[in-house]
Specification:
By secondary structure, the chain is of the alpha+beta class. The protein is about 20% helix and about 30% strand. The C terminus is likely disordered.
């Protein structure tokens, strides 16, 4: 699952990273439950998506000026979940339509969750 999420976030970066939105991907250290962290920065907001190899994820957006949380979700991905659908509300807070995001689905068949970081 983490491998699929990583590949999807690579596509996001290639689609969305521009002067108005900076996107950074951080691959967490090797642990029993490694994670991928994706930070999104705009002039008004900062956001973060984190996905762990066990399928747990969270996403949060903070307004830079006020420090208030604009959006927050934490849940667990299930086999067949479509990443753009799961994160659609997150991206809508940045003014992006999830239908325009690259496809990405967790098939649950990926054996490479034990990716060496």
């Amino acid at each position: 699952m983490l491998h699929e999420f990583s590949n999807w976030t690579d596509l996001l970066i290639s689609y969305l990273n521009n002067d108005d939105m900076k996107i950074t991907k951080i691959v967490g250290p090797t642990t029993n439950n490694p994670a991928i962290v994706v930070d999104l920065d705009t002039k008004a907001d900062i956001g973060r998506m984190v996905c762990w190899s066990d399928g747990a994820f969270d996403a949060e957006i903070l307004n830079i000026e006020t420090g208030f949380t604009r959006y927050r979700i934490d849940d667990t991905l299930k086999v067949g979940d479509c990443f753009p659908s799961i994160f659609s509300k997150f991206f809508s807070k940045f003014g992006l339509d999830a239908k325009l995001l690259p496809a990405g689905v967790w098939s649950g068949t990926d054996e490479s969750d034990e990716v060496a970081f």
